[in-house]
Amino acid sequence: MRLSRRGFAASLSTTALASLASPLLAQKRDFGPGAAPVRYPDPDIVKLDDRFAKYLIGNTPIQRLHTGCLWAEGPAWSSVGRYLLWSDIPNDRHLRYADEDGHVSVMRQPVGNTNGNTFDYQGRLISCEHGNRRVVRHEHDGSLTVLADRIEGKRFNAPNDVIVHPKTGDIWFTDPGYGSLGNYEGNKGRLEIKESVYRIDERSKKIVKLTDQLDKPNGLCFSNDYTKLYVADTGKLKSILVFDIADDVKLGEGREFHSMKMKLDGKDVSGVADGIRCDIDGNIWASAGWVGEGYDGVHCFAPDGTRIGQIRLPEICSNVCFGGAKRNRLFMTGSQSLYAVYVETKGAHIS
């Protein structure tokens, strides 16, 4: 029976990854300039469950696209501009990766120690400014609109991650306050309110608290059908929680989707998920870190919460997003660097 090169590579990937003696042990590897090519299938793309096999591409590598950041966060893909934008928080700048030639440049500086970014459905950039404790929108004419900086007369702690609902245009964001804990990623100051998740009503411009159930609500994303909200807690819970969405604007009681605890080389370890994104099949791709080799990178969870795969990186992964012309390229901000890998799925949302 004849088998295409793509099919042959995919079958090799599934077989090889399944046969690794200890698939969670990290592979020693040089990601730097001039490093030798990786032998396919990439040994740091790991299948933990058969459901992950359909998302593997046997002849594609994890690539380091850029390094030199201090703490990289907030990747967001511009479909119109065909570029990836992300934040280098301590250096107070937005960086831009151009899809056509891989060129990286400083797009904007200063940016208020911006963390999370997204693009709305009009192509405008929305950012969470740590240093200024606010959510802003960059308009097409170059001006800046402040969308949220206070609630009930009190300043936000330091907005972190942000998404936009396609039906209502409402902006949802988290406010854990990391940017106010010191002067490295923002400006040191007192947290004035409980760490919570909020919604900015597009019509009334009113800011609504959605939940304060989490200790440190961090990354967030909608499910592929927008009926659920997933939120990563990087505080005491160290879990991803899921909430049912009612009438596109309200949240039910949150429940644990998946704990970030796992067995690694026979030991119980517990890191955290930071940024999270959903694909068209409802899988959750979560950045993971603060454990070390074999854990740090990206963990993929099936819709039922089972961990089905990993993408291992040599750095703590802070955030992820889908992009590229077909929205099938997973971009990963990893501490000082930007990584990317092609997968056999697509992001469920625009950024």
Q: Termini separation (Å)?
A: 41 Å
| Fraction of residues in H or I helices | under 10%
Number of H/I helices: 1
Strand fraction: 35-45%
- Sheet bearing the most strands, described? 5 strands, antiparallel
* CATH fold-level label: Neuraminidase
Give the class-level CATH name: Mainly Beta
Poorly predicted runs are 1-26
Shape: globular
Q: How much is the average pLDDT?
A: 92
The tally of beta strands, per DSSP, is: 30
What is the CA-based Rg, rounded?
19 Å
Write the topology of this structure.
Layout: H1 5-18, E1 45-47, E2 63-67, E3 72-78, E4 83-88, E5 93-98, E6 104-108, E7 114-119, E8 125-129, E9 134-138, E10 144-148, E11 150-151, E12 154-155, E13 162-164, E14 171-175, E15 196-200, E16 207-211, E17 217-222, E18 228-233, E19 239-246, E20 250-251, E21 255-259, E22 261-264, E23 267-270, E24 272-278, E25 284-289, E26 297-301, E27 307-312, E28 319-323, E29 329-334, E30 337-342
What would you say about this model in short?
With 351 residues, the chain is mostly beta strands. The chain is built from one helix and 30 strands. Helices cover 4% and strands 43% of the residues.
